[in-house]
Amino acid sequence: MNLELYIAKRLTFRSKRTFSKTIVFIAIFAIALSIAIMIISISIVKGYQKQIKEKLTGFASHIQVTRTKLVYTYESEPVDYSQNYVRTIQKHPGFDHIQVFANKPGIISTASDIEGIILKGVSADFKPDFLKKMMVSGKIPDFSRSSAENSIVISEFIAKRLQVKTGDPLIVYFVQNPPRTRKFTISGIYSTGIEELDKVFAICDIRHIQKLNGWQENQIGGYEIFINDFKQIQFLNEISRAAAPFDQDSKMITEIYPQIFDWLNLLNVNVRVILILMILVAVVNMTTALLVIIVEKTSMIAILKSLGARNFSVSKIFIYHSAMLISAGILIGNIFAFTLLFLQYQFHFFTLPPEHYYLSYVPVMFTWDLFIILNVLSFLLCTLAMLMPAAFVSRISPIRALRFQ
Prior knowledge:
Elements: H1 3-13, H2 20-60, E1 63-67, E2 79-80, H3 83-91, E3 95-109, E4 114-122, H4 129-134, E5 135-138, E6 151-155, H5 156-162, E7 169-174, E8 180-190, H6 195-198, E9 201-205, H7 206-213, E10 219-220, E11 222-227, H8 233-243, E12 248-252, H9 253-256, H10 258-296, H11 298-306, H12 311-347, H13 354-357, H14 368-385, H15 387-390, H16 398-404
Parallel strand pairs: 4-9, 6-8
Antiparallel strand pairs: 1-11, 1-12, 2-10, 3-4, 3-7, 3-11, 5-8, 7-8
């Protein structure tokens, strides 16, 4: 029988504490609150990063292959469609989908307003799954028809600026020599919530861009490639770059929108700071509580020592006792955090201004592996931190303690 563990259980579950009761309650509450804040912080940051990445990659793909140029511009330069390159990408299990595209800047004109846009031309191989989720009204045109589709999909941001709606005509002017115009009909309005995309992009048939630029039927602006695992994007980008024709370059979405991904990575620093602070709060509160308990149980320590118990054995009693209190705090913190996260996941109680955060609600993500690691590390760190106050037991003299009593 483990005597130290038995006494620790008695202290934890059956002890009638006096002045230490409040201190212990505060310590458990601090641990529970710290664990809850850490879990919620990780869940929100990971959820936020995931949502923004999915929006960017859903609209602009994970990897773009275009003609090699020194400065990235929205104006596409023509490249010949390579069947060999497409087959290479389609055979690799890491790649999910490849589609062609071409960009061309233009100016939308209405009776009262004008707005600069980038026409993104897509073809029959266009994957509409993401755009369907982002549609506010209308529908996505069928780009697989034999003739060029005259419909266009614009963002809600542009629609509000121009005060137009689904079914309205749009005239787009292209600054080139000679200047050209095209008349489109708005078939749908989308909203990703990401201003960098919504402010500029409209979706149309790639054949309009080919005609405007005087390209051949097999000439495109480049390829958009979707992958299965974002963690492998750098590795897969190298495969794409190696397979691409010599005059083309393969760029990751992190290189095309570096400012957004730098900002997302900066959120990890904030989480690390929160984790460190919350661990310190838990350790300080638990250390204070344990010292109070040791002072309160001075007579018990003296009796155990007078009966022959060693300092290490008595210290183990309080370490076990602390571990039980820490476990209670961690359990309460987990219950509170997961209850709140589940409710937010289901009902989106907490909202965000989308013009600042790209999302209309606080996202959450259940990263169970990180949660398990966080709980285990928190328990170990807090328990190990209790070794120092538990060592205070060795300084208590049985004779003086009993004489004092």
